Amino acid sequence: MERVVIPLHIGDSDIELAFDQGCVATADAKLDLAEIEIELKHGDRSEVARLAKKLMRITPFTLSVRSKAELGYALLEGPLDAPVFAEPVMMAREVTVADAFATAGFACLRQIAGNEGAVRNGDPEGIHQMRVGLRRMRAALSLFKDMLHDRKVKRLKRELKWLTEQLGPARDFDVFVNETLTPYRAKHPDRQEFEILEHDLERTRNAGFATARAAAGSKRFCSALLDCALWLLDGDWRNDTDALTQALRKRPARAFARDELARRIRKIGKRGRKLERLDWRKRHKLRIAVKKVRYGREFFATLRCDGRKAGRKLDSALKELQNELGILNDMRVHLERAREFASAGKAAKKAFAIGCLTGREESSASDVLTKALAAGKRLQKAA
């Protein structure tokens, strides 16, 4: 590895700018590298952010979330573009709310950026895991929203929403084909109408994968990740002079987590009591609320805001409620996606096949709703 190091003194800060070029290699694999590293030796981290932004205007580059050592181990263990799952979020018990948000945000960013290769290669699990990372990031923005008032938040949310939408069709159709159509086809291999539907769904799923690959390889994707990283590092949210916001930034994250998650769980419990009367939109919102709490509990897990036994009961009830609400939501998504084919060629045969598949799912909706209600009651007892 060849390295050129340029020491910089900017304002009152000392920064090391390093250019690395070479490769990471094992006995069976090799990866060429060209990297820029910016290390703050002393001073204000805002200078690091400003320097990175200047470099972005000079030359295009992507955000690297793995060290050279991590890349080497990844080469030994398997393909570099394997799906990346959520990592444990490590927080010290005395961490402040501001640092807790940054820690959680960077963990989400690592999962999003870490799945770029898998998405560009059309790996279904990589697409799913990038979507999970995006949902976790959006959950973090929601959990800490009382501290985030700068204008960059709206733009960041818009970019996260855009990327989520680019990945959505690939994931939705992949789940529909693998979990609904394929099992049914295995039981009825001679039904011609399902063969027609399968062909069209495969074509649409492939188009969804192409859209996802294009998004992950776009300048917009790279720019969004870099902007997010720099914002987490030194965004205006860190310097808001509002007295209440300043107090919140400095508040112990353990106390904040306990209060914020308890408040959200109470709201979920109230809505869960009338679950059978909610339309699909309100059920979907409830499901998102449950997800945010689950992600929040993952973010704050090392702070141990509750006892282990009580925490396990709470996590179990939240997981079950989310799973059942997720099944109900999948049924709705499958119905919407399937209807897109009913107006195309050979509509009658495809409509019949769609009716068989979605009708089969709808027949189990009552049982799923009953399980969701039971999970909601368990959650109220555990809270």
Automatic annotation (TrEMBL):
InterPro entries found in the cross-reference section: CHAD_dom, CHAD_dom_sf, CYTH-like_dom_sf
Short name of one Pfam family: CHAD
Signal sequence annotation: none
SUPFAM superfamilies with a match to the protein in the record: CYTH-like phosphatases
SMART domains in the cross-refs: CHAD
UniProt domain CHAD: residue ranges: 94-381
Name listed for the protein in its UniProt record: CHAD domain-containing protein
Species whose genome carries this gene: Bradyrhizobium rifense
